[in-house]
Design brief:
About 25% of the residues lie in helices and about 30% in strands. It is of the alpha/beta class. The strands form five sheets. Strands 3, 7, 8, 11, 12, 19 and 20 form a seven-stranded mixed beta sheet that branches. Strands 15-14-13-16-17-18 form a six-stranded parallel beta sheet. A three-stranded antiparallel beta sheet has the order 2-1-6, with no helix packed on it. Helix 12 (about 320-330) links the parallel strand 19 and strand 20 (about 335-339). It starts with a strand and ends with a strand. The structure holds zinc ion (2 copies).
């Protein structure tokens, strides 16, 4: 089968490798059909690392995956050959305290696609444990199914802060994760505001029911706090940009919650006195946990059209172009590779 390897920064090689096969009776073999390009893939492509995770050997990128079941192991009961599926990319150890407590996203031994040294899914076939593979209904396309992964981040954020109907939510940064967090917050009953400078993203945010978007082409970030009629209950910071991160404290009301979702700046200046005086709750989120089934149900039941997030499709041979497309096209939201 064909697979796209990152061999060094800015270099992708399409190689012919052996097609994987089922080793474990609980596994399924999947023909990969769609893979979303994530910010993390682009980071590895350009820098060869994210923090402590360094690409030392050639690595297959891609983790937002959907496909069709080609073969099932003897013990598999939840899936059948030919079914269309979304694939949850992390396999936890299932034995540690975190796994047992149901917070398997924090498992120190999780094997997550496209995180060195674990290969991702820019390839034709993968083998995966059946309980991390989910059948998708007819009205969700295989391309849309890749968005269940970033959508899961938004659902996890809502779960973590226990978002309640009627609460006001500010979302800073309306890239794919920001927009899908917006959608999650709306579904949980939130009244949602956004901060973004890209016109295309602002337009999509409004189509998703965002009440108002602060356009940072027109308003200085530091002035947003003064133009808020009422402070919000929750902030989802999805941009990872220090200028916004530092301002989050001033958008939220006393006792409010702030969730840091976007990655970008490691160190920022946060007003700790403000955090204590206002008794703010600060959350970090790492991927997601137990969200896939719920995400699929939400998209299906609410007939959510995720297609408008997809900007362009590329074949497996064109993974390099796919990884570079977003940086070159400001109107691009999500790019899909179809192996
Ligand atoms: Zn992702
Ligand atoms: Zn574990």
């Amino acid at each position: 089968m064909k697979a796209a390897f990152l061999t060094r920064p800015y270099n992708i090689e399409i190689r012919e490798i052996e097609k994987p096969d089922i080793k474990n009776e609980d596994d399924v073999l999947i023909r990969v059909k769609s893979v979303g390009v994530c910010g993390s893939d682009i980071h590895y492509y350009k820098e060869g690392r994210i923090g402590d995770f360094v690409v030392k050997e050639p690595l297959i990128l891609g983790h937002e995956t959907s496909g069709i079941i080609e073969k099932v192991g003897k013990k598999v009961k939840n899936l059948k050959e030919g079914e269309r599926v979304a694939i949850e990319p992390g396999i936890p150890c299932r034995k540690c305290d975190y796994c047992k407590e149901g917070r398997y996203n924090l498992c120190p031994d999780v094997k997550f696609f496209a995180t060195p040294p674990i290969d991702g899914t820019f390839c034709e076939y993968i083998v995966h444990p059946s309980d991390f593979v989910y059948k998708i209904p007819e009205n969700i396309s295989l391309d849309e199914a890749t968005l269940i992964e970033p959508f899961s981040v938004g659902i996890h954020a809502c779960n973590l802060v226990n978002l309640k109907p009627g609460e006001k939510v500010m979302i800073s940064g309306l890239g794919p994760v920001g927009l899908l967090s917006l959608l999650s917050a709306k579904i949980y009953g939130g009244i949602v505001y956004g901060i973004e400078k890209n016109d295309k993203r602002i337009e999509v945010a409004k189509s998703f029911g965002c009440e108002y978007v602060f356009d940072t082409k027109k308003i200085k970030i530091k002035e947003i706090k003064n133009s808020l009629k009422e402070k919000v209950d929750v902030v989802f910071e999805c941009s990872g940009f220090s200028g916004l991160i530092e301002e989050t404290l001033y958008w939220v009301k006393r006792g409010g919650r702030i969730v840091f979702i976007g990655l970008g700046t490691d160190f920022v200046n946060l007003n700790v006195t403000k955090i204590t005086n206002d008794e703010l709750e600060i959350y970090g989120i790492f991927r997601y946990v137990n969200t896939y089934k719920k995400a699929i149900e939400i998209i299906d039941k609410n007939k959510i059209d995720l297609k408008r997030l997809i900007s362009k499709n590329f074949s497996l041979d064109k993974v390099k172009d796919a990884l570079e497309y977003i940086g070159k096209n400001s109107d691009c939201i999500k790019v899909i590779v179809n192996p």
